[in-house]
Amino acid sequence: MRVKITTFNFPIRGDDRGSLVAIEESLDIPFPLRRVYYIFNTGHDCRRGSHAHHTLRQVLVCVHGSCKILLDDGQERAEVVLDQASRGLLVDRMIWHEMYDFSGDCVLLALASDLYDEGDYIRNYDEFAALAEC
Ligand code: TYD
To answer: What is the spatial distance between Cα 83 and Cα 85, in angstroms, rounded to a whole number?
Structure first.
């Protein structure tokens, strides 16, 4: 079975002034929102992420440009292209993820369920794979 992919299509509230997407915690994404960060000015050859989290849940939205996300549950992998400002991708707890193939204009927004905590990171793939097996 392929790793489960959960995406969200946020409604675009457009009018003649342009487009607007609103994302509300627990309504549009399945967790309370405690942190927002975004990645930009990333070189095309750069690979980011390469870790999993014990408990953190995140939704990634490519609000400008495009990039690819690799999701790995310890058994299966899947690649997702993000290139729409109205589409969110769930990166759940205990999912190894990598971000790459950033377009020059990419702005990748991350909506996170908790504050930054280095102790929640699993940065070694073998350690992640062993934990994922349990
Ligand atoms: P890092 O986790 O390496 O980024 P990525 O997983 O996207 O490759 O984070 C880069 C730096 O930013 C690192 O020094 C930790 C810091 N950081 C914060 O201070 N707060 C945050 O919310 C995040 C995500 C990172």
So the answer is: 7
